[in-house]
């Protein structure tokens, strides 16, 4: 009898242990599952003529609302997807979403604008999506068809091609962006973002086609990108801090800029910006800080290290215009070699207004920063 009791207890223990293991496996599989949503399965045609925005929206809603685990939306290769203005909104139930672009996404022409589901100032908008990755593996293309917009861009009413708004823990990599209507990429109110291996192009004469425009964002890394545009390769605006920019090839374009800041007396801050190991190729400017003199602007902790290349600037290749109300502080230049070309070889110089910092091993000499 005693032996039977022992056997029964052992049997019950084994059953309990097996149940625990099954339960753990069940929970792990629920939280670790990943589901792929192909836009063509939701009706996207990919012939470059039919507007596929509704199919993209349907795929997004399915991925966003999937629940536990992760989701991936894939835009397959070998097809061109015409897409009108569209908004991908969160928050999502999925722990993270990967938007994989292997084909080409092309914007509707200007005359068809306003018929889609966007918010008016962006062609493609991601809003309040946490843990978002937009990847292309070197194959994905965004084509904004900007040429039809540029004649009216002087009015500044053209849309940004790709905007990320309040998307924390963001990753964007391996994509080609071309001919944006205005900015190619805007990052607004995002915390912790990694941007890498992008190829951004637009004619040097195209207006306001910034490569990446940043505002009110923190802790960003932008690296290993090639940008040839009609405006700033990278523009950093107010409320931004903790940005590392490295191994960027820029040109043509207006260089890498902070500002403009403080228009109409506005209070704005930019701090902890590192620009290192970047190359300019015949840019209209080199590096610059732009502040309105009557603005309450605070720019601090900006470092330029190992920046080289050429500009076609007729005046200053390094131009720091800081607020007279609050000078720029802790500005550091180290190992700078930026030369003017195109008939302006003797005009390379640095100009500073109200800038405090240090400079060493710099061409042109930067004597205007003061400690």
Explain how this protein is built.
This protein is mostly beta strands and 371 residues long. Helix content is 12%, strand content 48%. It is globular, with a radius of gyration of 25 Å. It has two helices and 28 strands. The strands form two sheets. The protein has an 18-stranded parallel β-sheet that branches. The protein has a ten-stranded parallel β-sheet with strand order 5-8-10-12-15-17-19-22-25-27.
Number of strands: 28
Question: How much is the average pLDDT?
Answer: 88
H and E order = HEEHEEEEEEEEEEEEEEEEEEEEEEEEEE
Q: Summarize the amount of helix as a percent range.
A: 10-25%
Measured between the Cα atoms of the first and last residue, the distance is: 92 Å
> Which percent band covers the strand fraction?
over 45%
Based on CA atoms alone, the radius of gyration comes out at 25 Å
Could you say which structural class the secondary elements and strand pairing correspond to? mainly beta
How many DSSP H or I helices? Answer: 2
* Biggest sheet descriptor: 18 strands, parallel
Could you say which overall geometry the principal axes of the C-alpha atoms support? globular
Given as residue ranges, the uncertain stretches (5+ residues, pLDDT < 50) are 4-31
């Amino acid at each position: 009898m005693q032996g039977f009791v022992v056997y029964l207890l052992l049997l019950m223990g084994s059953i309990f242990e097996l149940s625990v293991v099954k339960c753990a496996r069940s929970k792990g599989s629920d939280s670790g599952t990943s589901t792929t949503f192909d836009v063509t399965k939701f009706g996207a045609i990919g012939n470059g003529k039919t507007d596929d925005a509704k199919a993209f929206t349907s795929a997004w809603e399915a991925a966003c609302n999937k629940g536990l685990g992760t989701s991936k939306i894939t835009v397959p290769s070998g097809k061109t997807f015409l897409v009108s203005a569209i908004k991908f909104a969160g928050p999502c139930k999925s722990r993270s979403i990967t938007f994989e672009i292997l084909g080409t996404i092309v914007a509707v022409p200007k005359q068809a604008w306003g018929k889609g589901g966007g918010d008016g100032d962006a062609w493609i908008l991601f809003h309040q999506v946490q843990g978002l990755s937009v990847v292309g593996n070197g194959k994905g293309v965004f084509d904004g068809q900007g040429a039809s917009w540029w004649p009216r861009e002087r009015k500044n009413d053209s849309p940004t091609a790709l905007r990320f708004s309040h998307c924390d823990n963001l990753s964007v990599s391996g994509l080609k962006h071309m001919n944006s209507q205005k900015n190619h990429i805007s990052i607004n109110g995002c915390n912790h973002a990694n941007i890498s291996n992008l190829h951004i192009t637009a004619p040097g004469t195209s207006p306001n086609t910034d490569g990446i425009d940043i505002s009110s964002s923190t802790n960003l890394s932008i690296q290993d990108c090639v940008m040839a545009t009609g405006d700033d390769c990278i523009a950093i605006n107010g409320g931004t801090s903790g940005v590392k920019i490295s191994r960027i090839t820029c040109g043509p374009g207006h260089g890498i800029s902070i500002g403009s800041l403080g228009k109409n007396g506005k209070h704005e801050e930019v701090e902890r910006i590192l620009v290192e190991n970047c190359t300019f190729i015949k840019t209209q400017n080199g590096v610059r800080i732009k502040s309105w003199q009557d603005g309450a602007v605070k720019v601090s902790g900006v470092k330029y290290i190992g920046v080289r290349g050429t500009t076609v600037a007729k005046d200053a290749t390094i131009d720091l215009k800081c607020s007279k109300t609050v000078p720029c502080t802790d500005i550091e230049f180290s190992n700078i070699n930026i030369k003017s070309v195109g008939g302006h070889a003797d005009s390379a110089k640095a100009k500073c207004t109200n800038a405090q910092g240090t400079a060493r091993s710099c061409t042109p000499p930067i004597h205007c920063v003061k400690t």
